[in-house]
Amino acid sequence: MSAVESPRKIEVFPVIGLEVHAQLLTRSKIFCGCPVTVGAPPNSATCPVCLGFPGTLPVLNREAVTLALRLALAAGATLHRESQFARKNYFYPDLPKGYQISQYDRPFSTGGSIAIDTPEGEKAIRLVRIHLEEDAGKLLHDTPYDDVPENVSLVDWNRAGVPLVEIVGEPDLRSAEEAASYLTELRRLVRYTGVCDGDMEKGSLRCDANVSVRTSPTAPLGTRVEIKNVNSIRFVAKAIEHEIERQAQSLARGEAIVQETRLWDEKGGRTVSMRSKEEAHDYRYFPEPDLGLLVLDEKWIAEARGALPELPRRRRERLATAHGLAPQDADTLVSARELADYYERVVAAGVPGRLAANWVTGEALRWMKERRVSTEQALSFSVSPERLAGLLKLVESGEISAASGKDVLVAMLDSSTEAAAIVAEKGLGRMRDTGALEAAVAEIVAGNPSQVALFKSGKTQTFGWFVGQVMKKTGGRADPAAVREALTRALESAGP
Q1: Which residue in 62, 108, 100 sits closest to 82, CA to CA?
Q2: C-alpha distances in Å from residue 80, one per residue of 69, 111, 262, 293
């Protein structure tokens, strides 16, 4: 249980529930054939159906239902063989019909959970429901057009009718950290299952946070405040932290918490009031008369279940167990399905799991970030898993040092040449000439009499310094075991 203290030491216990909208990865909208577009000219991807013209009829997109099925199954939710669409009535300029087709009392699925990691162990965050609905349009308040006055807002209806699933969580979260962990796991799940690209900055995944506080863990729930449409996991955590503190200070001053919707002001680092909070009855839900019941048959469910990949938490457990990976490394590897695939292909090419994990989470991931290759694009990285495996086999066998391996990887970034050829071309292989090694050792020992004297006086830690100097002298190509043997002989036979 997480407690937060106000400046007047009023201890409060937060209660948090998240509502997340995920845009489904379909080519067309949920009730018409208009394309789902990004960056298209404003109002170019619209038709009479998604604009709500009289006499038009919606037709449900089967692929949208299939993707919702996949997510509900992945979350362990209870599917309802029959669900019903409803009209959610409200007026905004970006809602051309004057209502939104959604689901309410007969949703697509109920129950299920998203597991998160906490300092106390794994915690299951329960779900209320997952339901289908259509998106609204988009209002542009700060317009980029020179001929539009500053006090004029524009509307783009391209997004109207884009398919969404809303994932409504129970108020099981007790801190901003838990909320961030939940969102991270949920985003990972929708990406693994191919339901949504999870891009919060572009609005593909949008989060509303319901936050309340109470004065003891067993006290009745406090008045909840909704924080609307926060566009990054980091900002969600910051908004929740601020709202908890704001409510704590209000209680400390003896003020009542007002049920309302607030927005996160990123520049000001605060939440600001937007409007009073609507209740379900404000929307006057009633069954959508132009759509029949959505009926799921066993074949459809079985097909969706068969399309599920190994889910991220199960994959993390398997990789950690099979290859003896540190929990942090395993978590990094499964952060994106494509990155985990990249790693497993390196291992499949004959590289030990730990060695592969060290390089994929280290050098490979570093260069992906440097080249602006996202983890979801890992398999398109210029150094393929099989090419990296070829390099790591040289490191594992001792043919090259780890330091030389990093240099070889850099050379591979902009070349199709394999690691072995680069090693041969640059002469980076292990030094085989024992005479050259003995000469390098002798030169280092003879040139550093003071260090030799320290070693002779019993300060044997200077031995490591000598090893480092020889490795530097040989460009890291000398075999460390051979270096130690040669140094031991040279130091023992050195002067008094």
Answers
A1: 108
A2: 10, 11, 33, 11
Please say whether the beta carbons of 58 and 31 come within 8 A: yes
Query: 227 burial class (0-12, 13-18, 19+ CB within 10 angstroms)?
Result: buried
Token readout for 380 is 């398109």
Torsion of CA 339, 340, 342, 345, to 10 degrees: 180
| Residue 264: partners with Cβ closer than 8 Å, 6 or more residues away | 227, 230, 235, 238, 239, 270, 271
Question: Between the CA of residue 402 and those of 11, 134, 405, 418, what are the distances in Å?
Answer: 52, 53, 5, 17
Tokens 């075999």 correspond to what residue? 479
Domains of the chain, start order: 4-303 (no CATH), 310-426 (no CATH), 434-492 (1.10.10.410)
pLDDT tens track for 380-425: 999 999 999 999 999 998 888 888 899 999 999 999 999 999 988 8
Least confident among 164-168, 209-213, 260-264: 260-264
How far from 88 is each of 84, 168, 283, CA to CA, in Å? 13, 16, 5
Task: Confirm if 114 and 312 have CB atoms less than 8 A apart.
Answer: no
Q: Give dist(CA 125, CA 169) in Å, integer.
A: 7
CB 208 within 8 A of CB 227: yes
The pTM for the full model equals 0.86
- Measure Cα distances from 284 to 10, 90, 100, 288 in Å: 39, 8, 11, 12
* Beta bridge partner(s), residue 118: 121
Question: CA-CA distances (angstroms) from residue 230 to 109, 178, 361, 409?
Answer: 25, 16, 29, 39
Cα separation of 289 and 39, whole Å?
33
